[in-house]
Amino acid sequence: MKQGKILALVGVLVVAPMALAQGGAKSPKQSAGKTAARALEVYEQGKRLYDAKNYAGALDRFDQAAAIEPGKARWQYNRGLALRKLSRFSEAREALLHSRSLDPAYKRAEIDDKLREMGFSPTPPPSTPSEEPSTPSTSTPSEEPSTPSASTPPAPPPPEPSVVPRGGTSKKPANPMLSFCLCSGMALLFFLLFRRQLSKTKPLQDSHHASTSTLQPRSEELAPLEGQLKQVAASLAQVEHALRLNEDADLRALLNQATMAEQNAWQSMEDFRKGTASRSAVKRRIDKAHEATEAAVAHAHGLFGEQAFLPEGERVGCYFCARPLANPSFRMQVPLKRGSQVTHVLACPPCANMAAAGQPPPVKVRRSSSGQTQHWSEVHGYDPYTHRHQPHPDMSTMPAWQYAPERSLGEVAAMAAGGALATGLAAYGVSRLLDLDSASEAAAAQAATQAATQAAAKRASEHREERDWKDHS
Q1: Strand, coil or helix: what is 241?
Q2: Range with the poorest average pLDDT among 47-51, 202-206, 300-304, 400-404
Q3: Strands, sheet with 341-347, edge to edge from the N-terminal-most edge strand
Q4: Looking at the structure, do residues 43 and 113 belong to the same domain, yes or no?
Q5: Does residue 74 register a pLDDT over 90?
Q6: In angstroms, how far is CA 305 from the centroid of its own chain?
Q7: Residues 61, 112 within the same domain
Q8: Is 319 inside a domain boundary?
C-alpha cells in the first residue's frame, strides 16, 4: 500500500513538470493571441456602449481592456474619450498622455485636439494626422489599431536547430529546459508539501497576522501628511490668483499639471485613511505634487514678480464647475435657455466646449439634509480659488437641466460672476445656445431607451432560463 502511494507521488513529480514544460514551449504566441482577442472583445462591448452614449459603461469596458493589455495605446486613448464625455477632464488628460507614452505615433493629432478642447496645453502639432474615431451620427471610439511602420518589417524567426543522424532523418536536440522544469517542479512540490504541513501548526499566528494587516492609520500619521497637502493647495490657489494679471499658456499648463498631481495625492490620502494604501505611496504622491507646485510658483514669480501674490483676483468662477476665472481671456459666455427665458452665464473652456457640443455640463451644488439644493455661489464661505484645491465638504454635482434654483437663474449667474451680470464682464467669446429643456427631454428619452433595453434583456434571460430548465427536466 505504501509502495503504491510512493509510486503515485513519483509519477506526479515526474509527469507534471514534463507536461508543464511541454505546454510552456508552445504557449507564448497562443497566449498573446488569446490576450489580444480577449481585450478586443471587451473593447467592442465598450464601443457599443459608447455609441449608445452610455459612457460610464463604456469606460468600464475600456478599463477592462487596458487591464488585459496594459501596453496597448489604443485602450488608453479610448479611456480618455470616455472620461472626457463624463467630464472627468484631469483623468481624461492622464489617460491620453498615457496613450501617447505607450505609442507616440498613435492618434497624435486627436490627442492634441482633445487636450486643447479640455483647456490643457497641447503638445506641438504632429506632422501625420489620423482620422477622428467617429461616425457621422455618433461619437465613436477609435476602430483603427496602430500598425507597425512599413519601413521596419519584422525579423524572420530564427531557424529551429536540428541534428541529422546517420540514417538521414532529423530530430530535435535534447531540451535543457525540460530538465530544468523537471527539477524545479520536484523542488516546488516538496516545498508546497512542507509549507502545508507547517501551516497546520500555526493557525493562531496566521489569523493574527491577517487581522492586523488591514489596520487603519492613526491620526498622528495623517496630520503631517494633510498639513503638507494643505500647503500645496494654498500655493496653487495663489497661482490661480496670479493668472488675473495675464493669461500665460505655460503657466496654465504648469498649474493644470500640479493640480492633477495634487488631486492624485488627495485621493491617495483618502485610500490611506481607509487602509488601502501605504504611507510611503501617499508620501510619493505628495512629493510629486509639491515638486509640480514649486515649478508653477517659480514660473508665476518669474512672469509677474512679487505682484503676482499680493492682491487677490475677482471672485469669479465657472457657473458649472466653479473653476476660478480670474482672467477674462480664460472665460466664455454660455447662453442657457429655459422656457422662453435666456440667461448668460460664465464658463471655463472645458465646460463651454461641452455646452457648444450640446452636452450640458454638470453643476456643482450642495444638498442639505432637508432636500434643499444650493448652487456653489450660494454656499457661505465657498471660494472658487481655495476650494478648487481644498475640497469643500458636502459638495456634489447634478445635471444642469435638473438644477432649478429657488431664486432666479439670472441672480445665481450674477453671484457666480462675482456680483455682476455675465453680459457685463469681459470674456473671449460666446458659446452657442444651450437649451436645457431639450437636454432634459433628450435625457428622459435616453433613460427610457436604456430601461426598455434592460427590460428586454431581462425577459430574454428569464426566457433562456425557463427554456434551459425545461430542456434539463
Answers
A1: helix
A2: 202-206
A3: 341-347, 332-338, 434-435
A4: yes
A5: yes
A6: 36
A7: yes
A8: no
**pLDDT at residue number 38:** 86
What is the Cα gyration radius of the chain? 30
Give dist(CA 52, CA 13) in Å, integer. Answer: 54
Same domain for 347 and 283:
no
Q: How is residue 359 written as a grid cell?
A: 452636452
* CA–CA gap between residue 132 and residue 368 (Å, rounded): 43
> What pLDDT is recorded for position 131?
37
Count of structural domains, the chain: 3
pLDDT at site 177: 60
Choose among 402, 406, 399: nearest CA to 378: 406
| Per-residue confidence (pLDDT) for residue 400, from 0 to 100 | 87
CA nearest 336: which of 408, 427, 426? 408
| Higher pLDDT among residues 367 and 29, named by residue | 367
> Which grid coordinates belong to 372?
434643499
**Same domain for 277 and 230:** yes
How sure is the predictor about 421, in pLDDT bands with cuts at 50, 70 and 90? confident
Q: Considering only residues 146 and 289, tell me which one the structure prediction assigns the higher pLDDT.
A: 289
Q: Please identify which residue in the block is written with the cell numbers 488608453.
A: 76
The verdict on residue 332 lying in a domain is: yes
Q: Given this model, what pLDDT does residue 133 score?
A: 41
Residue 184 has pLDDT above 90, yes or no: no
Q: What is the CATH number of the domain that holds 108?
A: 1.25.40.10
The model carries a pTM of 0.53
Instruction: Please check whether residues 287 and 348 belong to one and the same domain.
Output: no
Looking at per-residue pLDDT, the higher value among 23 and 102 belongs to 102
Those residues with Cβ within 8 angstroms of residue 405's Cβ, 6 or more apart along the chain or in another chain: 373, 375, 378, 411, 412
Fill in the amino acid letter for 239.
V
Residues 6 or more apart whose Cβ sits within 8 Å of residue 103: 73, 146
Stated as kind and residue range, the H or E segment containing 365 is: strand 363-367
Q: Closest Cα partner for 359 from 396, 318, 401?
A: 401
Nearest to 418 by CA among 333, 310, 346, 355: 346
Same domain, 299 and 349: no
User: 55-68 and 27-51 helices cross at what angle (nearest 10)?
Assistant: 170
Name 3's Cβ contacts closer than 8 Å, sequence gap at least 6.
none
Query: Virtual CA dihedral for 281, 90, 241, 392, nearest 10 degrees?
Result: -70
Measured CA to CA, the distance from residue 251 to residue 120 in angstroms comes to: 11
pLDDT in tens, 317-331: 999 999 999 888 888
Instruction: Tell me which residue of 350, 309, 445, 305 sits closest to 93, measured CA to CA.
Output: 350
Q: Indicate whether 379 and 294 sit together in one domain.
A: no
Q: Which DSSP string corresponds to 384-416? A: HHHHTTSPPTTEEEE-TTT---SS-HHHHHHHH
- Tell me the residue range of the domain where 75 lies: 33-117
Residue % of the chain over a pLDDT of 90: 23
